[in-house]
Design goal:
Strand content of chain B: 25-35%
Helix content of chain B: 25-40%
Shape of chain A: globular
Structural class of chain A: alpha+beta
InterPro entries (chain B): ET-Flavoprotein_bsu_CS, ETF_a/b_N, ETF_b, ETF_beta_N, Rossmann-like_a/b/a_fold
CATH topology of one domain in chain A: Uridine Diphospho-n-acetylenolpyruvylglucosamine Reductase, domain 3
Subcellular location (chain B): Mitochondrion matrix
Keywords (chain B): Electron transport, Mitochondrion, Transport
Family (chain B): Belongs to the ETF beta-subunit/FixA family.
Radius of gyration of chain B: 21 Å
Oligomer: heterodimer
Strand content of chain A: 15-25%
GO biological process, one term (chain B): fatty acid beta-oxidation using acyl-CoA dehydrogenase
Shape of chain B: globular
Helix content of chain A: 25-40%
């Protein structure tokens, strides 16, 4: 979009009032804050910052800025606030729900230049990082210390981005999600104010001090402010790990085993479920020979002694639930081989139909409801002729259908959309949520309303209005838009 | 073989750090920069510890040459499973000028003193990329060498070593005692876990100076200048092949 078009667009959409001086002026003010080469209106750069890894189409911002420090972010935000320019924070662009699309234009704040790891406290098990630090970068940095940050959503995502989307991962069953592991946040609000949700520099392991603002911003997906620092809870790297695989005659027996394993107090680190369609896909993709049945992939962390006990207890439970072929291993090479199917699931699913696009659904229900929802979902897939092998974090009741669709087949896309709506509503009907870990983003805003009900949604909208009355922070995400009049006020 | 293995570990700037050259071009900035064990040394330690776990050798001794901070690197090796450490103290200008030949002399002396059966080093350090210390150590000791090792197996009283070479893989059989240098695919080093880091604090690190080993560490090399590679300049687009050829001729490339 050229500068003139931007100017006209902004006038037309009442984003700028008559006091606005001109886009060139804004851009030059941006440049004087963060430097000439840190502001881009190049088409390729803007498009790169208007898409993530979801199937939502690219919505490029009008400009991208690359600030270096929180003071620059604050100054830029003040400017955007003055001129009513929407702001979209951007970490690594690895989101799965279209959270970075600039639906109403505006400026994308790419935070990748703020990449310092600050304040590591090994005895206190905490560290503070800036948004440009990804989880693999942090864990590489920590490798000599015996500590790690275990939340693992798959992608090498920005940790502050993970905080913004309340990310989770395969070992949430033992280590929790971002909600449990963020101690403090530094946030730049819509008007440029810098706040620390738990107080500047504070990092007690627990607190009862005031409203829990930290967890207000965790999962807010950039709609309440720009996260510029996050203080994270670290854990000790496990002394030893054992991986195991077990096959089951049905989804029910696999889930029953999961429930019993948790009830037995086994501190299982990962417990992943792959359905038989997925196992078949994995066999084909990696030339493996797993039995084509619902399968559990398990991982145990602990000391040598405790591992032996954990594995023994788990094996007994799986056997009592008609599980078979229980294999386990401790050395890295065999563990990787046992888990090969789980590691390659995404690619194996895509390989089922080369040339097609893959999209992951994401719902979460109480454990006891998991067999029912998976069985009903599989029936739905077959009835509507859709390809959707299933992989799930069964210990949390969270599962994904890895949908593989032909992007040029309008009818299939329509069926996909209807299917995902039914899936989300099925989860809601079973006391669950329409999104276990990917977030609401663009596509699940109406589902969120159904999930929460009008009073709760109104409360969320009030909070949003309090923090961002002009609706400049990532507009169009999480909550359905309120009226345009409120932005003029 | 129930002998002793010496493993060399070098403290280098962490591989993830962006290197900056000092303004006076005398070297790179090291103050306040994260350092860690050279990645190839990690692989060497892992191999030695694996051998001990398989009961092929009895004791793993981690050795590092450098200032006080080199002890941190030795502690990491101890946390990975080495039994004890030796810190050969070299500081200041001596440390800045410390290169493969002097380190090789130190290792050769230590190998004799400790009656080691095997010396395992990383194939090269990621700061100087010399790839010389292992080879020089073997020459000084007059021991066979298995360099760029991607697989090491004990066969009776000999070592079978698969080496990574330009043409592919070469398999050799060498006598013990020997020097090995670890290449990337030899193994995947384990993480130092917290309990092991705690246990490592109790393991012993002996201190000594090069003079104690009768090693002369005077360098015969002098670094004249360190500079960054030339900044990458913006490219330019041309419309036709003729334009491209003309521009290349203009720039003296053809």
């Amino acid at each position: 979009m050229t500068c003139i078009t931007l100017f006209r667009f902004m006038i037309k959409n009442k984003i700028i009032g008559s006091q606005f001086l001109g886009v060139e002026n804004v851009l030059s003010q941006f440049k004087s804050i963060c430097g000439e080469d840190r502001v881009s209106v190049g088409q390729a750069v803007r498009e790169q910052h208007g898409r993530d890894e979801s199937m939502h189409r690219c919505c490029a911002p009008d400009a991208v800025v690359f600030p270096h420090c929180v003071e620059e972010v604050s100054a830029l935000a003040k400017l955007c606030h003055l001129y009513n320019v929407p702001m979209i924070p951007f970490g690594t662009g690895t989101g799965l729900e279209g959270g970075v699309g600039a639906l109403e234009g505006g400026v994308c704040f790419s935070l990748r230049n703020m990449d310092k790891i600050l304040d590591l406290h090994m005895e206190d098990f905490d560290v503070t990082v800036e948004p440009g630090v990804t989880r693999k970068t942090l864990n590489t940095y920590l490798r000599d210390t015996g500590l790690w940050f275990p939340v693992d959503p798959g992608a090498d995502a920005s940790l502050c981005g993970m905080a913004a989307t309340s990310a989770s991962g395969t070992n949430a069953v033992r280590y929790g999600t971002m909600r449990e592991n963020v101690l403090n946040l530094e946030v730049v609000l819509a008007d440029g104010t810098i706040i620390h949700t738990a107080g500047k520099g504070r990092r007690p392991r627990k607190t009862a001090a005031g409203y829990n603002l930290t967890n207000l911003f965790v999962g807010s997906e950039g709609t309440l402010g720009i996260i510029t620092k996050t203080t994270l809870r670290l854990y000790g790297i496990p002394e030893a790990m054992v991986s195991a695989v077990c096959t089951f005659p049905s989804v029910q027996t696999a889930v029953d085993s999961t429930v019993q394993i948790l009830q037995a107090g086994v501190p299982i680190a990962r417990i992943e479920f792959l359905d038989e369609v997925m196992m078949d896909a994995c066999n084909r993709y990696s030339s493996l020979s797993y039995p084509v049945n619902p399968t559990l992939f398990l991982e145990f962390h602990g000391s040598e002694g405790s591992l032996e006990e954990q594995v023994k207890t788990t094996e007994a439970i799986t056997q009592s639930n008609d599980g078979s072929n229980f294999q386990w291993a401790q050395d890295a090479e065999t563990r990787n081989r046992l888990w090969a199917a789980r590691h390659n699931a995404w690619y194996a699913a895509q390989a089922l139909r080369p040339g097609c696009k893959a999209y992951s659904t994401d719902v979460c229900v109480p454990l006891s409801q998991l067999p029912q929802i998976i069985v009903e979902t599989k029936e739905d897939l077959i009835k509507n002729n859709l390809t959707g092998p299933i992989a799930g974090h069964v210990g949390d009741g969270n599962f994904h259908c890895l949908m593989v669709v032909d992007p040029n087949d309008k009818d299939e896309l329509h069926r996909l959309h209807a299917f995902t709506d039914r899936l989300a509503r099925r989860a809601l009907a079973l006391d669950g949520t329409c999104t276990g870990e990917h977030g609401v983003g663009l596509g699940k805003r109406s589902l969120l309303q159904e999930e929460l009900g009008c009073h709760t949604i109104h409360l969320m909208q009030s909070l949003k209005y309090t923090l961002d009355p002009k609706n400049l922070m990532n507009p169009g995400k999480v909550l359905l838009p309120f009226s345009r009049e409120s932005r003029q006020g | 073989m129930t002998g002793r293995v010496l493993v060399g570990v070098k403290r280098v700037i962490d591989y993830a750090v962006k290197i900056r050259v000092k303004p006076d071009q005398s070297g790179v900035v090291t103050d306040g920069v994260k350092h860690s064990m050279n990645p190839f040394c990690e692989i060497a330690v892992e191999e030695a510890v694996k051998m001990k776990e398989k009961k092929l050798i009895k004791e793993v001794v981690a050795v590092s040459c450098g200032p006080q901070q080199a002890q941190e690197t030795i502690r990491t090796a101890l946390a990975m499973g080495a039994d004890r450490g030796i810190h050969v103290e070299v500081t200041g200008k001596d440390y800045e000028n410390l290169g493969p030949l002097q380190v090789a002399k130190i290792f050769a002396a230590l190998a004799k003193k400790e009656e080691a059966q095997l010396v395992i080093l990383g194939k090269q350090a990621i700061d100087d990329d010399c790839n010389q210390t292992g080879q020089m150590t073997a020459a000084l000791l007059d021991w066979p060498q298995g360099t760029f090792a991607s697989e090491v197996t004990m066969e009776g009283d000999k070592l079978k070593v698969v080496r990574e070479i330009d043409g592919g893989l070469e398999t050799i059989k060498i006598n013990i005692p020997a020097v090995l240098t670890a290449d990337l695919r030899l193994n995947t080093p384990r993480y130092a876990t917290l309990p092991n880091i705690m246990k490592a604090k109790k393991k012993k690190i002996a201190n000594m100076k090069p003079a104690d080993l009768s090693v002369d560490i005077v360098s015969r090399l002098e670094v004249l200048k360190v500079e960054e590679p030339p900044q990458r300049e913006a490219g330019m687009k041309v419309e036709t092949v003729e334009d491209l050829v003309a521009k290349l001729k203009e720039g003296g490339t053809i």
